[in-house]
Amino acid sequence: MTASPGRARVSDVVVEIGGLPIQLRCGDPAFVQQIGERYAGYVTSSSKPSFHFDIELAPRGALSGDEDVRVTWDSGRWLMQRGDFRAEWYPAAAHGTIHQTINPFSLDSVLRIVHTLLLAGKGGFLLHASSAIRNGRAFLFSGVSGAGKTTMARLAPPDAALLTDEISYVTRQGSGYFAVGTPFYGELARAGENLRAPIEALYLLAKGPENKIEPLAGAEAVRGLLGNILFFARDPEFVRMVFDAAMDFTGRVPVRRLTFVPTASVWELLV
Amino acid sequence: MKNARYVARSAAIASRALGEETMVMSAASSTLFTLDEIATLLWQSADGVTPLDEIVRDKICARFDISPDVALRDAEDFVEQLAAHGILLISDQPIASPVLASGEPR
């Protein structure tokens, strides 16, 4: 987990999410150790990194946390910026830099953005959704904050493997879609299991007086899905790729509205 | 008599037909629009070289029971709304080719 390129001693860790190993290098070994702990379950030593980021830590107070995220494509690189980080990534050269505060959640945000950009090119996306595997099939529960994503994760039966309670990782494989575990978590504050499974259905969450499932199709399904896909880059090519992925997904995976009472019995409806 | 107006689909959009509807997403703002059957006809005909009144007459009035005046007024409102979101271009002259709002090959 260490290397010595030239003068400074640089530590590194490789974090593999969705089958994509990314090497993270930093001159502060304590921070690298923090990253390793944050992404436990997703750290690998066997995979060759697809690319790397050099992390430069800013002194406390040097960056402000108030600015909204901005992602733009400029001269062969993606620029990613928020109050607490500034990053640039050169996809063709397979490297980038991250200038950030010591808060590991700044890195978390950069990784989410990088994965949305990478997934878009492969027909996948990140979705505001909890997800879990049961009986070899993945179930996604999507909605805005407060819709019940974490609640559905908490109510999952013991034989279900939780992939995430916050951000689901959706990949296209052949003619189907798979959900992949991620370390991106919400209120549950624990990483999902590093597993993958074909997606059985996407449920758009609504709380109500009784448990009910209604199939959605056409424009309604697309609107429901697109409303919950993570969009960072306001870039025509990126938007087109995500739009096409959403159209394709709704043509292949059942999309349903799940109105539910927050009790464990809701899971009995699903499988 | 009003001058002819021409409409063209912006290149900075993503769109897909779903049955008789069309979904259009603005690449600049990610705003999503769902066009009904009549709006879809207009959208599909917005080639930049056919005047709007001709599209209304030949594509909409020929198929739906609606007066040309009302249809044209509705169509003008509609294209102006879409133009305000940057997904449709309007001009008094034929529009040769839509222009990408931003972006480059990568």
Summarize the structure.
The complex is a heterodimer of chains A (271) and B (106). Helices cover 22% and strands 38% of the residues of chain A.
Explained architecture:
The complex is a heterodimer of chains A (271) and B (106). With 271 residues, chain A is α+β, with helices and mostly antiparallel strands. Chain A folds into 2 domains: 2-120, no CATH class; 125-269, Rossmann fold (3-Layer(aba) Sandwich), CATH 3.40.50. Helices cover 22% and strands 38% of the residues of chain A. Chain A contains 5 helices and 16 strands. Chain A has helices at residues 29-38, 104-120, 149-154, 218-226, 236-252, and strands spanning 2-3, 10-17, 20-26, 51-57, 70-74, 77-82, 85-90, 95-100, 125-134, 137-142, 161-164, 167-173, 176-180, 196-207, 212-216, 255-260. Chain A has an 8-stranded mixed β-sheet with strand order 1-2-3-4-8-7-6-5, covered by helices on one side. A 5-stranded mixed β-barrel of chain A has the order 9-10-14-13-12. In chain A, strand 1 (2-3) and strand 2 (10-17) form a beta hairpin. Chain A is globular. The N and C termini of chain A lie far apart (43 Å). By secondary structure, chain B is of the alpha+beta class. The longest helix of chain B is centred in the last third of the chain and has 17 residues, at 68-84. Chain B starts with 5 loop residues before the first strand and ends in a 15-residue tail after the last strand. Chain B has 3 helices and 6 strands, in the order E-E-E-E-H-E-H-H-E. In chain B, helix 1 packs across helix 2 (52-61) and helix 2 (52-61) packs across helix 3. Chain B has one domain (6-91): Alpha-Beta Complex (Outer Surface Protein A, domain 3), CATH 3.90.930. Mean pLDDT of chain B is 88; it is low at 100-106. In chain B, strand 2 (13-18) and strand 3 form a beta hairpin. Chain A binds chain B through residues 73, 76, 91, 218-219, 222-223, 226-227, 231, 234-237, 239-240, 243-244, 247, and chain B through 11-12, 14, 16, 18-19, 21, 23, 25-30, 32, 34, 100-106.
